[in-house]
Amino acid sequence: AAGVIQSPRHLIKEKRETATLKCYPIPRHDTVYWYQQGPGQDPQFLISFYEKMQSDKGSIPDRFSAQQFSDYHSELNMSSLELGDSALYFCASSLSGGNTIYFGEGSWLTVV
Amino acid sequence: AQSVTQLGSHVSVSEGTPVLLRCNYSSSVPPYLFWYVQYPNQGLQLLLKYTSAATLVKGINGFEAEFKKSETSFHLTKPSAHMSDAAEYFCAVSEDRGSTLGRLYFGRGTQLTVWP
Question: Nearest-CA distance from A80 to chain B in Å?
Answer without folding.
Answer: 26
